Amino acid sequence: MFKETGNRAVLRTRITTVTPLLIRAGDTGLDPGGADLKCVRTRHGSAERTVYIPGSSLKGVVRSTAESTIRGREYRGVEGACDPLAQETSCSARVSKTEGASVHREHCLACRMFGSLAMKGRASIRDLFPWSGDGAELTTDDARRIAEANRTQVRFGVGINRFSGGVSRGKLFDQEVVPPGTSFWGEIALENYQVWQLGLLAGVVEELNDGFAQLGSSKSRGLGVVRMSIESILHEQPARTENRPMGVGHIVSAGNAREYGLLPEVDLPPATGVRRGLFFRFTVGPDEATGWMEAGLRALEAL
């Protein structure tokens, strides 16, 4: 599915913390006065060292949440989600690492979306930062958001003895957390995607917004509740197609669709694209993006 470009999209996302958030750094650093569990930080563009949400952390939550909603079901004869830990039945174990349409056809829906050891996925989730621009030139509002995000708090914790119910000796610890009300912006990139795959992402957004899925560490202690929204969608497809946004199932030939085992496609909401070289480009704002995600949910429900 990646030998030629059928369509591609970039979803601009925003995540806002409802409760404190801790995505832990790999080490505690050299500061003897620092918290036992510290927030992960990085540098980006003209910004100073800052807290952020790694794309890998968000992808783990997105994939596990999506898999849990479709595991145990079949969609037009295709398994919803395999067990990635199964030694013989997971897609990574049973699908040979060769080229050809059969590789895609033999994968479950989750692995078609997020990939396996035998095939690249359709979705790439990028890091999220506490500013709305690209970070190259920070505005006054961006600088304020960075300062607020990095005004972290310390939450104290204690280990409980499971037998006595009292405090375990030597089990006091503290955690550095990002405060509630902090927003992070990032992107989800899709390549050669079908409309039902937008629906899979839309379902994850609903799970996060309803509080059934959470981010980061200490989720059982009340951390990690967030709200997620799609701020905009940038979609491109070849100019040889009609000037309306389409899933890849409407772009490739019927023969290729059958060969790759693509599922039935549905229409996206109408929009007019702008010709940019060999592509039509469609840009939709938050209201229109909601319509696209709802179309994705309808496509997923129709399978």
Give structural notes.
By secondary structure, the protein is of the alpha+beta class. The strands form 4 sheets. It has a 6-stranded antiparallel beta sheet. Strands 2-3 form a two-stranded antiparallel ribbon. The protein has a two-stranded antiparallel ribbon with strand order 4-5. A hairpin with a 2-residue loop joins strand 4 (74-75) and strand 5. The protein has one domain. It has helices spanning 55-70, 91-94, 101-105, 109-114, 140-149, 195-209, 254-259, 286-301, and strands spanning 8-17, 41-44, 47-51, 74-75, 78-79, 123-125, 153-160, 167-177, 183-191, 226-238, 274-276, 279-284.
Q: How many domains is the backbone divided into? A: 1
Distance between the termini: 21 Å
Number of strands: 12
Structural shape:
globular
What helical percentage do the residues reach? 25-40%
How many helical elements?
8
Written as H for each helix and E for each strand, in order along the chain, the element string is: EEEHEEHHHEHEEEHEHEEH
Q: Which structural class do the helices and strands define?
A: alpha+beta
Unreliable runs: none
